[in-house]
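Checklist before submission:
- one chain only
- standard amino acids only
- sequence pasted in full

Submission:
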Amino acid sequence: MTPTRRVRPGGTSVRQAAFLLAILALVTACATPAGGPGGSGLTLTGASQEPLDRLHQQAHDALARWADAVRRSGGASISFVGELTGQIGDWEPANGQNKAALMAGMVESPRALPRGAPSRDVVKWLDGSSVDVNVLSAADTLAALVASATSTCAECTPLEVTDAQQATGLVDTSRGPANAPIWVYSVTGTTVKVTRVAVDKSVTVDPPPWNASEPPDGVSIQSAIGSRDSKKLAVSFIGAKDGADKACGADYTAEAVESELAVVIIIEEHPSKVELGPNVGCARGGFLRTAVVKLQDVRGDRAVLEIKQGLPVALTAP
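Returned file contents:
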C-alpha cells in the first residue's frame, strides 16, 4: 500500500508564503506606495509602454524563453519552483558529508530499482484544481536526481539507496503550492529519507549564462501573491531599508511586462542622493520590501517570472 506523506522538498518557499500573507491587504487595496522595513519609497506603475531599453529587452527575452520552454515541454501546465530534490529529517553528526554528497548527485542504488512507470497520478493545488500527470519510475526519478547535480564533492562517499516508496509531497509551483507525486528513498546508515519529485513533464527554463562584466539589470522578485482572477500582484524583493528621502535608502518602481503565458516583474532601484555625514556607514540592502503591481489582464494560470534570469517564482493565492 503506497503511503501518502506531506513532504516539502528542500529549497521550496512555502514557509515564506505564510509571512507574505501579512501583505495581502496590498492586493485588494489601491496601488499606493508600500514597502517592507522603511515602508515608503515605492512608485507603482502598470505595464510599460517604454521603448525596449535593456530592462525591457530582458523582460521580452524572458517571455520568449518561457514560450519556447512551454513548446518544448509539449504544452505542460506545471512548472516547479525551487529544488525538486529534498529530504525528510536531519543528517546525523556522523553523516555530516551526506548533505554535500546529495547536492553533488552522489546517490546510487546497488540493488536495481523498479523501472516500470507507475499508474498516472495528479498534481493537485490547494485551491482544488488539478491536472493528470505521468509518473516517472523509481529508477528514472533517481537518474534525474543524479543528472540535476550542480556541485561536486571529491571527498564524499556516495549515498546508497536501499528502498524506494511512492508518496505525495507538497511542492511549490508557478501556480502555487501543490501536492505532487514523489519518490522517497531510504539510505544506508541514516534515518534521513531522500525525496524527489516524480512528475514526467514540466516546464523547465534554461536561463542564459551571465556575462560577469555586464550582469543583468534590475532587482529580482522572490515571490508573489495573487488570485487567478485578479489584475494585481503583491511581490516581495530584497532592497534598501529606507526610502530615497534618507541616506542609504532607495525608491523602487515596479511594473509588469506580459504575454499570454507569463508575466515578468521589473523592479528598478533609484538610490538616495542624500549625502552621508563623515565617518558614517550604512547597509544598502538586505531588507524585505514589497510592492503591488498592476496587470493589464487577470493573471489566470500565467507564471510570474523574475527579471534577471526569467525564472518562475513561488506564487501564493490569497
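Reviewer check: Residues 1-50 have pLDDT under 50 and may be disordered.
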